[in-house]
């Protein structure tokens, strides 16, 4: 496998030296970075996940201790011992159950992170906030930092979500578009016909056709 830009293979550049590369800076390798820089880059990428696990651990410990204190009391040595044991035990179980559910998070040298789930789903988050999720059935969803997303399905269906107005538009391969609004209403716009007219079907059963001459027909 060779890069179409620099005409070299990644294996040729594994030591950051490439004799056949046609570019001044090879695009098959990551630039050399100091280990401390890589460390803080990984910390920044995984901070949200680590914080979530920490909060989950503390919450589980508090729930376990408080539940034990209610059942066994907190003024005796037995109650205190059982409370701390139950609290830390529940925290450990919850934390390890979360980590060991098959999810693997890997920090990449470019600052992105890759999350692999047990069901085969792979989620890649780039430093600019773009998240790309690839599902086992071939579906790919790209989610931007503003919450908007585009989903491409194997059959050619495209689903777009706009967080500003809450609309979801599903476009079929034949051009049929289904628009779902935030309030639950929807309408279907069919592809343009041979005569140039476009018909839209609304949820209440009304069909409005826009003709090439600018007139509309309601059915």
Features:
2 helices; 13-stranded antiparallel beta sheet; 28% helix; alpha+beta; 219 residues; 13 strands
* Beta-strand fraction estimate: 15-25%
Structural class: alpha+beta
DSSP helix fraction: 25-40%
Distance between the termini: 57 Å
Structural topology:
Layout: H1 35-72, H2 77-99, E1 104-107, E2 113-116, E3 122-125, E4 131-134, E5 140-143, E6 149-152, E7 158-162, E8 167-171, E9 177-180, E10 186-189, E11 198-202, E12 207-210, E13 216-218
Antiparallel strand pairs: 1-2, 2-3, 3-4, 4-5, 5-6, 6-7, 7-8, 8-9, 9-10, 10-11, 11-12, 12-13
Helix pairs in contact: 1-2
Give a written overview of the molecule.
With 219 residues, the protein is of the alpha+beta class. Strands 1-2-3-4-5-6-7-8-9-10-11-12-13 form a 13-stranded antiparallel β-sheet, covered by helices on one side. A hairpin with a 5-residue loop joins strand 12 (207-210) and strand 13. Among the domains are: 1-32, no CATH class; 46-100, no CATH class. Helix 1 (35-72) packs across helix 2. The model has no long low-confidence stretch (mean pLDDT 80). It has helices at 35-72, 77-99; strands at 104-107, 113-116, 122-125, 131-134, 140-143, 149-152, 158-162, 167-171, 177-180, 186-189, 198-202, 207-210, 216-218. It is built from 2 helices and 13 strands; from the N terminus they run ααβββββββββββββ.
């Amino acid at each position: 496998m060779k890069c179409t830009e620099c005409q070299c293979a990644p294996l040729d550049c594994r030591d950051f030296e490439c004799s056949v590369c046609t570019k001044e800076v090879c695009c098959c390798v990551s630039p050399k970075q100091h280990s401390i820089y890589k460390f803080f880059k990984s910390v920044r990428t995984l901070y949200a996940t680590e914080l979530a696990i920490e909060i989950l651990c503390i919450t589980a410990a508090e729930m376990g201790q408080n539940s034990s204190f209610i059942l066994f009391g907190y003024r005796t040595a037995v109650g205190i011992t059982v409370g701390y044991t139950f609290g830390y035990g529940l925290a450990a179980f919850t934390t390890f159950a979360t980590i060991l559910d098959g999810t693997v998070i890997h920090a990449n040298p470019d600052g992105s992170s890759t999350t692999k789930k047990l069901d085969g789903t792979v989620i890649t988050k780039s430093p600019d906030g773009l998240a790309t999720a690839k599902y086992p059935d071939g579906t790919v969803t790209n989610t931007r930092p503003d919450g908007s997303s585009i989903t491409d399905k194997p059959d050619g269906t495209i689903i777009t979500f706009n967080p500003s107005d809450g609309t979801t538009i599903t476009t079929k391969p034949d051009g049929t578009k289904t628009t779902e609004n935030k309030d639950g209403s929807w309408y279907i716009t069919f592809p343009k016909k041979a005569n140039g007219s476009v018909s839209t079907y609304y949820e209440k059963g009304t069909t409005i056709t826009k003709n090439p001459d600018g007139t509309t027909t309601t059915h």
